[in-house]
Amino acid sequence: MSNIKKQSHSNRLSYNINASEKAIYRIQSQTNEERSKFIIDTFIDSFKDGIRDNPDAFRTRFRKMAATSFNFYRGSAVLFYQDLKIDKDPFILKHNAAGQIFIHGDLHAENFGTYLDSNGILNFDVNDFDESYIGPFTWDVKRLCASINLLCYSKGFSDDDIQKILTVCIEEYLKQINIFCKQSKDHFALTLKNTSGKIKKLLNETRIKSHIEHLNKMTFIEDYNRKFIRSKYILNVDNILYEKLINSFQQYIETIPDNKKYWNQNFNNKELTYKIKDIVQCLTPEQVIAFTMFSSAEHRSTDQVSLTVVRKSDGQSVTFVLNEKTRIHDLKHELKRRLKPRFDRGCRLIFRNQVLKGKHTLKHYGIKKGVNDQAISMDDTKDSKSSSSSSSSSDSE
């Protein structure tokens, strides 16, 4: 907490026999010089290979960390655990299994977001699992609370308010864990079906975004294969590293269970083939691998449709890949975000002489998967706006 008072008494729950105090008290007892040396030594010990191989990338990283307290906290998970490992948790001592959990490893307040799960369902959950490992589950909880404390402090919350916020966070966490313990289901996810408010709004906004547009900014097609666009930041890897990555990927493929190697729906139980199509090196401490999954079947069937909206006045077009159950008002919302000048609510969207109404889905108007040349005309002429205004009450936005 931000108002923790310095204490000098020893703590019998310390991991380290030479550390007579809990981590927070040990940190507070250090001089600035001692603390600085500990931080530098921790970073060097953890990142020395990366710093030696790519010093520019780490200079950039450390500059970003120096901008704010929260940025520093985000980029220094290794330091957090070097400090925290001194504390001896009595609950973990009594329940050894609780200290052997596959934890997130960097659970801070900005590591939440949306993604598609293995079944193609959009979830809101924690993300960024690159620091996951086996450890006490309480470390995730402590790191999350510390990050909330930093964010609240940076926004000017009082110590009492921060205390209340953290108390609510922990109480709700314990309530939910208790609910999980009383039910038999092994899986739970926050989806469009069971959320409301801001989380549901975020899921809906994510649902109508075009992944194709983002992909095209990073890649190009050559000889019918998708590859990364090279630049001064995206480079080829050397032959030795290339072979190591290929071999490592093949070893990974061998670990995939047999029931995961076949796509039963629409693939006629034919075995999938996984191949690495391109490998590049980013000027960051990690490499990026692009690979494609495909089989002898021509396409994997989905509920996604490709369509283009063309504005009548200037010919500007926007291409989308959306679910056929997307409602027209969601499409209009995305048009407002992507069109310049912005989409006018008075404009009419027309598909095959039908004026598209906000409450209906794309599928309702015959915009379906597997249909080519699905172009929607956006009529933004004066006559269109005047005629549409009279019917706006029936077109729910």
Automatic annotation (TrEMBL):
It comes from the Eukaryota. Residues 375-397 are annotated as: Disordered. It comes from Rotaria sordida. PANTHER family: DUF2252 DOMAIN-CONTAINING PROTEIN. Residues 386-397 have a biased composition (Low complexity). Residues 305-370 form the Ubiquitin-like domain. This is Ubiquitin-like domain-containing protein. SUPFAM superfamilies: Protein kinase-like (PK-like) (SSF56112), Ubiquitin-like (SSF54236). InterPro entries: DUF2252, Kinase-like_dom_sf, Rad60/SUMO-like_dom, Ubiquitin-like_dom, Ubiquitin-like_domsf. Signal peptide: none annotated.
